[in-house]
Amino acid sequence: MKHIKIIDLLNNTKTLQEVTAKGWVRTFRNNQFIALNDGSTIHNIQCVVDFENTSDDILKRITTGAAICVKGTLVESQGAGQKVEIQVTSLEILGDSDAEKFPMQPKRHSLEFLRENAHLRVRTNVFGAIMRVRSVLSFAVHQYFQQKGFVYVNTPIITGSDAEGAGEMFQVTALPLDGSAPKNEDGSINYKEDFFGKQTNLTVSGQLEGETFAMALGQIYTFGPTFRAENSNTSRHLAEFWMIEPEVAFNDLADNMDLAEDFIKYVIKYAVDNCADDLKFLDERFAQEEKQKPQAERSEMTLLEKLNFVLENNFKRVSYTEAIDILKDSTPNKKKKFQYLIEEWGADLQSEHERFLVEKHFKCPVILFDYPAKIKAFYMRLNEDGKTVRAMDILFPGIGEIVGGSQREERYDVLVEKMKALGIDEEELWWYLDTRRFGSAVHSGFGLGFERLVLFVTGMTNIRDVIPFPRTPQNAEF
Ligand code: 4AD
Ligand code: MG
Description:
By secondary structure, this protein is α+β, with helices and mostly antiparallel strands. About 30% of the residues lie in helices and about 20% in strands.
């Protein structure tokens, strides 16, 4: 008999049928009650073992972590909190699990411990829920853009360009590492002779390639892994993360903001509607975590309230210049405690400034736009004032920057001049400049850090806990 997923068994209204279920034992109580989980849902199904007619050898092997197959009758459950359970008629151990050695004991583990066991942590309720929500959010991303007629583009992972110009790239060595690679006179590797004939990196962003496709297909999006060799050991940065980058021909900055806000609301709503059980569980977990914090630091809203708040309110659109004025006004010198917030026009905003604006001042998601040109990337459209660019960052409560985007500089001459000033090689980016040579047009796009979105939706606080196998400095175990 084919086995049935536990989520389908639990939603089943027809009892008294013969069923087969397969999964992993979470707990085994009183030699009788198995809590079985197969990953299809946060909920376990209770399997009641007829221990008098089951051999001691089998009973001993029903341990936490073991893979089993049960056959039996689906009956109404007497226990609280579950509608049905399986009265087991036969039970097979598919894979034993040594109870002494299995790291995922049925108790609360610290997140640090679980991170060290990324291959097994997904067997816990928390990580099962997070990974299902992540999967549903991925689907929602594609659904949103596909419904709107965007073309999904796979931009290269190995690339010769540094889209963000920040130099935080992982180099790809397509050369033997045994010392036999061709060298320059100074001993450095001679990339001219390597597999690609030039130095290549793992991509930091698919934007530049995405732009070339937008200038032909109109509306495109990418959704793929991106890599940053920034040595920032924070709870918001990963060395390998997933980014969604839409790019739209003929969109200006205001259109770009509209698209980003509509998109974010759509995917969050999709998760709220389609991950009810997992989000209810994560909501309860969030409440427990908040209780551990001092009163003053606790969230005023539950996780689900936070999600609904984002859905129901417009993001506040504020120019960089207005934001600086707010920061200055909020920091009278007398009040020492806010002194650090004072910023001068032209400075890049630090995360404490962003958090102040979002969490203390506006208390809602904020779209900051028109940043000083000198703190933003070369490809952003220069404003008429000659000193700001049509950039936008979306800041989220508890997360900080979740989106970075802009209207792009479509004027060939202005772009070339900017590249010259920044020392960016025109010849390297000849193909990018072609978009401005042939049929250039106003266009805009943005990048949403997928893990930051998953962080927000799941109420987790460390980005390492929302990606299956986190890549961070000093962490490449898996
Ligand atoms: O602001 P960023 O660097 O923008 C770009 O890469 C543009 N090319 C996007 C575009 O316009 N098409 O990165 C975009 C987003 C950030 O807002 C953040 O959410 C996320 O990517 N991000 C990271 N997420 C996790 N770990 C990191 N190290 C990240 N760096 C950026
Ligand atoms: Mg950014």
